[in-house]
Design goal:
globular, mainly alpha
Length: 202
């Protein structure tokens, strides 16, 4: 296998692992929010029933992942102009992640069908990618709030639209720190399992 092919394979696996973790976290966010609302009773802070909260979250999720939906409208929760801009930024990232994930799936399916070994990842790279998140794990575990802030500064550089005011955007009362931490944990587990499987693959 040429050096060029090696580089492409490495990039492919990193993108596939990353987008798999994002897609997995998005899917898991629905049951996670349900659990956190029940346990933390955050629905009371917005004066909504559990069913109403989940219906509004359905509307938010559908907006974030469906590329042809251009306007965010939650039935019971108002959205400020600043929050709408942030959700539009998040939508672009989510749609990009889904598109990249689907492209990786198609490539994977095609290579399996052709019985090609072009996507076989070197175990050294699999181990390096597996260990990569461990560098930030202590910071994330000891101070998730600071980690969350740094994450947003990196992902949304130059923007402060992610700083929600509960008075104008009550959705933030439902999307608690614990909920986001759980979503990050799911994402991390999926990422780690992806490269663990590559490491154990014969």
């Amino acid at each position: 296998m040429s050096k060029k092919n090696n580089i492409l394979t490495i990039i492919y696996h990193f993108i596939f692992a990353l987008t798999s973790s994002v897609v997995g976290a998005i899917i898991a966010s629905w049951p996670l929010l349900l659990v956190f609302v029940v346990v933390q009773k955050t629905n009371r802070t917005v004066n909504l029933s559990l069913g109403q909260v989940m219906f509004n979250y359905d509307q938010l999720l559908w907006y974030l992942i469906w590329p042809f939906k251009h306007r965010l409208k939650m039935r019971d929760l108002p959205t400020s102009v600043m929050a709408a801009r942030h959700f539009a930024d998040v939508k672009r990232l989510f749609v990009l992640a889904f598109v990249a994930f689907l492209c990786c799936l198609v490539i994977n399916f095609w290579c399996r069908k052709q019985k090609s070994k072009a996507l076989k990842l070197n175990k050294v790279w699999a181990l390096l990618f597996l260990l990569l998140p461990i560098a930030i794990l202590p910071f994330a575990l000891t101070n998730f709030d600071s980690f969350f802030v740094v994450f947003h500064h990196l992902l949304f550089a130059g923007s402060t639209t992610w700083l929600f005011d509960p008075a104008t955007d009550p959705i933030i009362n439902l999307l608690t720190e614990g909920f986001f931490a759980a979503c990050f944990a799911v994402s991390g587990v999926i990422y780690e399992l992806y490269f663990a499987e590559k490491l154990l693959q014969r």
